[in-house]
Design goal:
The complex is a heterodimer of chains A (1048) and B (97). By secondary structure, chain A is of the alpha+beta class. Chain A has 33 helices and 30 strands. In chain A, the strands form seven sheets. In chain A, strands 1, 2, 3, 4, 20, 21, 28, 29 and 30 form a nine-stranded antiparallel sheet that branches. In chain A, strands 5, 6, 13, 14, 15, 16, 17, 18 and 19 form a nine-stranded antiparallel sheet that branches. A four-stranded mixed sheet of chain A has the order 12-7-24-23. In chain A, strand 28 and strand 29 form a beta hairpin. The mean pLDDT of chain A is 84. The two termini of chain B are 12 Å apart. The mean pLDDT of chain B is 90. Chain B is an alpha+beta fold and 97 residues long. A four-stranded antiparallel sheet of chain B has the order 2-3-1-4, covered by helices on one side. The chains are: A alpha+beta (1048), B alpha+beta (97). Chains A and B meet through helix 13 and helix 31 of A and helix 1 of B.
């Protein structure tokens, strides 16, 4: 017994099976977590190696180069870039998407083992750091404090960071901006010299005094005691009373030559929130944990933590990524609701019967909810991609149900009992329902196989739509006939309300049928005119192609802006701080949209890995601005300016400050996707002067282009620095070498880490160095005394000279070559392709010195890669769709005729994109791919019926007209459900709507235009091919049966 | 004894069986899927792409006195929904075992 016959025979079983599916789906829904995007496994590995005190050039030659050479042989590597800056080398390995990052990490570790021994002695061990979307902070808290400022680090560490880190799913919690306690031993060089002491000797005395030593065990009487010397300092003031030596038989105390201050580290990054000093707590999640949940847990915990803090310490929120996520998801859920209503309305208008509408609409929740079970089983989340897949599917799931229900109705009207009608009617259409689902699967299943970035994003879309289509087909073949057999009745009597409402609609539809039949009748008799017209329309739309602009992902208004302001290098921190306050004040007054504004300035500690990743220094200010989210911006601030608009305005403001050397305003706050688009021009070459010149030239030209709002050069300015040129001969004469000499210098200026002071389980550095007043001039440096092995003191000026030099602070390399990147931010109304065009033109016209090369990278490179992948996919999909159709019709000609719909789908897309000025991005391309499956469905419906009419013995032209007329309504109905189903996506204005707008636009335009054209064109093309077939058969017939010498 | 051959749209099966039961007609032979077309009008029943419907047939050997009533009832059934199609033919049975 067939599937549908048994379903109709056993209505209870059938109904309950679907109820079970719905319950499972709903159960999964309660367990699903919410996220913005599907989990993107990181494809980056950072190798960070600190070499305190080394300059960028040293780091490049001694660390970055050897590391790159070794790491370059790791498999699946896409790009290797490195940044060599003062104190640290960061080598970034970018792998192809989809590479198993754990395997890659192991490879990297093995390679590092090989090279570690060859690295400089003072360089710390390379740290491997996987950086993915998981590492983007999910929450940044602000801390403001007054009196507690000095102890802020410890307070935050104990009372905020540790409790927060214990929350399930929270990864790293780092504190920045709060000064860290340090015990400084400030020496007076003159006194040191007088007492014959040095920084090194003091340092070693402190280290030796500050020690706990176990002395073994001792048996006394019948007991065993352990023996211990507790030498560690219990109070910082004990240090100043240490005896560091003897002079003339009297002890020399540390306080004689130095002062000990229990204070904070000297150079630090300062953070201000809404104008008040404090710190920032950066919270990252564990890999795979859910940001929305964690963010909620953290926020729930905050009042409790706040109660425990000193009264002047206040916690606040600077950035909360979960607001954007929940708002985006909410607006998508709303879109799905609207789509559902629209589809319901269309079905009702066309069918005019409540029961039939109910039966059809029932497939929507059932198949959609089934998709949640898949999400749960595969460990995915509710995100933009999975939810917009649902929205896309709504319009398509009803198609199968409509076909089945229509046929059952026909049978009932002919006189069958509903039960019999349901069985036989379903039997008749089962094959074509399955075939049309297969064409959809031919489109969506290949999506699950895309590689690269697009693959990660669209795997879910492919699976979800495929699963929904399969479930809806199963429902159409079992549940729908079952419900029809139970609920549909032959009811020729129409209610009064029905007559009032539906008579005009019925009349209009009939009129439409007649008009269409007339048009078709004319068209099939003027085949040449129609074909020429169609060709012209297609060619015309192709002419519009240059007007279509391309982008990667649209910029999303996530209400976050990050601004980085750079003053001339080497400027003192106080001046930077003053300017930061001024800008802070101006922004707060000028932009009521700002909810929180925080900034940090100053040199970050080498221990703070998070801060080290971004540029920092005494001349750099980093602003983090959080606007009111787009949904409430209007009511909270009385202004509804968009993110990009505000950014443009901020750029103008900053340009007015003469003291600012360089600034960068980033919309989206550096989020991975949906942030502002940039075009990166990479200029490769070893020589700094040459590459700088080219970069400056191109940056200047790009800045003048109207499509560019901001140009940044990746290479920063030359830092003025003092270098000490030692004379090796003189050093050797004095029994010294460069290493020992430089160590002496370093210990006096940077300080020597003597030991660690322990208090309450925390360790604080004890640093011995010259007091600040003795390291303020070049003379101070020249007067530094170094001691050789025989104890003789030599001053630096006797063995070397102090010279001023300029060195680049960060040396960037990509694929083992020095690179300088000029990145141009795309202006408000322009898109990626505009800027790429300008960049290409300018680069061609520029006078490039030999030995230099260039390429365009950044977003453009990603876009090209993704477009290429999707392009190949599209060809594959067209072939698959053809195969499925050829199998269904058992013919090669008929699917070929149907294929004529595809070019007009593209025509519609081009038309839509150029009229609405929407750029073609990845989302639009996905829309285009989906369109391939959707547009051919119309063709299938028409051609199928034409073949049927021909088989029933009609002539070609009559068949074409009859079929067209009879299939007009089903085609219009399925098209309308899909197009109108896409409208809420295409016209959405909620938070995050930018992401899927272009996809909705593409499908809606492509499908509408292609339907209008194919409704006329497909019958015509069919007539041409069918007529040729008939002529061929006649000729064959003539050859076979007429005598050879027959003459007309 | 008469042989009644009924050829009808599949959808009639349940109803014809009900009529036979009411009239104490027990024995019959039933072909679930047969194809055919009417001599004058009506759609062919081929189970094909163009003509997807199918017929069934019943051959029942019944007592002569039952024939008229049975045919009347079948005719009534046919008249209710002519579009489906139902035909019955009767001939004599000469011998049986």
């Amino acid at each position: 017994m067939s599937l549908y016959a048994s379903a109709i025979k056993k209505p209870v079983t059938t109904a309950l099976i679907f109820v079970a599916v719905v319950i499972m789906g709903l159960f999964s829904l309660t367990r699903l977590s919410v996220d913005l995007l599907p989990e993107i496994e990181s494809n980056m590995i950072l190798v960070m190696t600190a070499y305190p005190g080394a300059s960028a050039a040293d780091i490049e030659t001694n660390l970055s180069k050897p590391l790159e050479n070794v790491l370059n042989s790791v498999s699946d590597l896409k790009n290797i870039t490195s940044q060599s800056k003062e104190n640290i080398s960061i080598v970034t390995l970018e792998f192809e998407y989809g590479t198993d990052i754990d395997v890659a990490t192991n490879d990297v570790r093995d390679k590092l083992d090989m090279v570690t021994s060859a690295l400089p002695d003072n360089a710390e061990n390379p740290i491997i750091f996987k950086f993915g979307t998981d590492d983007i902070p999910i929450l940044i808290l602000s801390v403001t404090a007054d009196e507690s400022m000095d102890a802020l680090y410890k307070i935050l560490d104990d009372k905020v960071a540790n409790p927060l880190a214990r929350i399930k799913g929270v990864g790293a919690v780092s504190i920045s901006g709060a000064p860290i306690r340090e015990i400084q031993v400030y020496c007076d060089p003159y006194k040191l010299e007088a007492y014959g002491q040095s920084v090194e000797s003091i340092s070693s005395v402190i280290a030796q005094e500050n020690r706990n030593t176990p002395g073994g065990t001792i048996d006394i009487g019948s007991n065993t005691y352990s023996l211990r010397v507790q030498g560690e300092f219990t109070d910082a003031s004990q240090i100043s009373n240490l005896v560091i030596g003897n002079q003339n038989g009297k002890p020399v105390y540390l306080r004689d030559v130095a002062r000990v201050t229990d204070t904070v580290e000297e150079r630090m990054q300062e953070a201000y929130n809404n104008g008040k000093q404090g710190g920032m707590i950066i919270i990252q999640k564990q890999s795979g944990a859910n940001s929305v949940n964690i963010s909620k847990l953290v926020k729930d915990k905050l009042p409790e933590l706040q109660a425990d803090l000193p009264s002047d310490v206040k916690l606040g929120i600077i950035i909360d990524t979960s607001t954007n996520i929940s708002n985006t998801i909410d607006s998508l859920v709303e879109t799905i609701g609207v789509t559902f209503l629209i589809v319901m309305l269309v079905v009702f208008l066309f069918l005019g019967r409540w029961r039939a509408t109910f039966i059809i609409i029932l497939t929507i929740p059932i198949s959609l909810i089934a998709a949640f079970a898949y999400l749960m089983a595969s460990g995915n989340t509710l995100n933009i991609i999975s939810l917009s897949s649902l929205s896309i599917a709504i319009g398509m799931v009803v198609d199968d149900a409509i076909v089945v229900l229509e046929n059952v109705t026909t049978h009932i009207e002919r006189g069958s009992r509903p039960k019999q009608a349901a069985v036989h009617a379903t039997n008749e259409v089962a094959i074509s329902v399955i075939a049309s689902t297969l064409t959809m699967l031919a489109v969506f299943l290949p999506l699950t196989m895309v590689t690269g970035m697009a693959g990660i994003l669209f795997k879910q879309l492919g699976w979800i739509v495929s699963i929904i289509m399969i479930v809806s087909t199963l429902a159409a073949l079992t549940l729908i006939p079952m419900l029809c057999s139970q609920m549909l009745r032959l009811n020729l009597k129409r209610g009064k309300l029905y007559v009032i409402f539906f008579t005009p609609i019925e009349k209009a539809l009939n009129k439409l049928d007649d008009l269409y039949a007339l048009l078709l009748d004319w068209a099939v008799r003027h085949r040449k005119t129609i074909m020429t017209g169609a060709a012209l329309i297609f060619a015309g739309s192709m002419l519009l192609l240059p007007a279509v602009k391309t982008e990667f992902f649209p910029t999303q208004d996530n209400a976050r802006i990050s601004v980085s302001v750079e003053l001339p290098v080497g400027i003192r921190q106080d001046i930077t701080r003053d300017l930061a306050f001024k800008i802070n004040k101006e922004f707060t007054e000028k932009y009521p949209e700002i909810e929180v504004i925080s900034f940090s300035e100053g040199q970050a500690n080498t221990d703070n890995t998070f801060a080290q990743l971004s540029a920092n220094g005494t001349h750099i200010i980093e602003f983090n601005i959080s606007l009111y989210s787009i949904g409430v911006r209007k009511e909270k601030s009385g202004s509804d300016r968009g993110l990009i608009e505000i950014c443009e305005s901020i750029r103008l403001d900053l340009a007015a400050y003469a003291e600012i050397k360089k600034f960068e305003v980033m919309a989206g706050g550096g989020a991975s996707m949906g942030s502002e688009t940039t075009v990166d021009i990479e200029i490769y070459g070893y020589d700094f002067a040459e590459t700088d010149k080219v970069a400056a030239e191109i940056a200047g030209r790009m800045k003048n282009a109207s499509v560019v709002s901001q140009v940044n050069i990746s290479r920063e300015d030359y830092i003025p620095e003092y270098q000490i040129d030692f004379d090796r001969e003189k050093l050797a004469l004095n029994g010294l070498n460069v290493t020992t000499a430089s160590m002496y210098l370093r210990n006096r200026i940077n300080g020597s880490l003597a030991s660690q002071y322990r208090e309450d389980g925390n360790e604080y550095d004890i640093r011995v160095r010259y007091a600040p007043e003795f390291r303020q001039s070049i003379e101070d440096l020249e007067n530094i005394i170094m001691y050789n092995n025989s104890g003789q003191g030599v001053r630096i000026r006797d063995v070397g000279t102090v010279v001023e030099q300029m060195t680049p602070p960060t040396i960037e390399r990509k694929n083992r070559e020095r690179v300088i990147t000029v990145s141009a931010v795309v202006a408000q109304d322009a898109v990626l392709s505009d800027v790429v065009t300008v960049a290409n033109q300018e680069m061609k016209s520029i006078d490039m010195p030999s030995g230099l090369s260039w390429s365009i990278g950044g977003t453009y490179e990603d876009q090209q890669d993704t477009f290429r992948d999707l392009g190949i996919l599209m060809v594959l999909i067209i072939i698959l769709v053809f195969i499925v159709m050829a199998a269904q019709f058992e013919s090669l000609v008929d699917p070929f005729v149907i294929m004529f719909t595809i070019p007009f789908g593209i025509t519609g897309v081009i038309l839509g994109l150029s009229i609405t000025q929407t750029p073609l991005g990845v989302m639009a391309l996905i829309g285009l791919i989906m369109l391939m499956g959707i547009v051919v469905k119309n063709g299938i419906v028409i051609i199928d019926y034409m073949i049927l009419c021909r088989e029933r013995g009609q002539s070609i032209i009559t068949a074409a007209v009859t079929a067209g007329r009879s299939r007009l309504r089903p085609v219009l109905m399925t098209t309308l459900t899909t197009v109108l189903g896409m409208l809420p996506l295409a016209l959405g204005t909620g938070e995050g709507a930018e992401m899927w707008r272009s996809m909705g636009m593409t499908v809606a335009w492509g499908l509408s235009v292609s339907t209008l054209i194919t409704l006329v064109l497909i019958p015509v093309v069919y007539c041409i091919f069918a007529a040729n077939g008939v002529k061929r058969r006649r000729r064959k017939f003539a050859r076979l049966y007429l005598p050879k010498n027959f003459n007309h | 004894m008469k042989a009644v051959f009924i050829s009808f749209n599949q959808a009639y099966y349940d109803m014809i069986l009900a009529i036979m039961d009411r009239n104490n007609i027990r024995g019959f032979t039933y072909w679930e899927q047969v194809q055919g077309r009417g001599s004058k009008n009506g759609e062919p029943h081929y189970g094909s792409h163009a003509w997807p419907t199918l017929n069934s047939s019943i051959l029942a050997i019944i007592e002569s006195r039952q024939v008229d009533n049975f045919l009347d009832l079948l005719k009534k059934l046919d008249k209710q929904t002519e579009a489906l199609g139902l035909r019955a033919f009767v001939w004599s049975v000469e011998q049986n075992i």
